[in-house]
Specification:
Length: 60
């Protein structure tokens, strides 16, 4: 099972102190799966396909 992590650079966005606190609190919460959002197996995750072409970056 894969989990995607994202780091937010506070300098890129104008977030309020409350928004920053709420986002930081989320990183410690466990993922909650249910019938509308079930946990996917590695095989199911492998079936996902990119729908848009990758954009070139400075490293390309």
């Amino acid at each position: 099972m894969s989990t995607v992590y994202c780091q937010i650079n506070e300098n890129d966005f104008k977030l309020t102190d409350e928004q920053i606190r709420r986002l930081q609190a989320l990183k410690d919460k466990p993922i909650t799966y249910d019938e509308d959002c079930p946990e996917l197996t590695d095989e199911e995750l492998a079936q996902f396909k990119r729908v848009s072409p990758r954009k070139k970056t400075a490293n390309d």
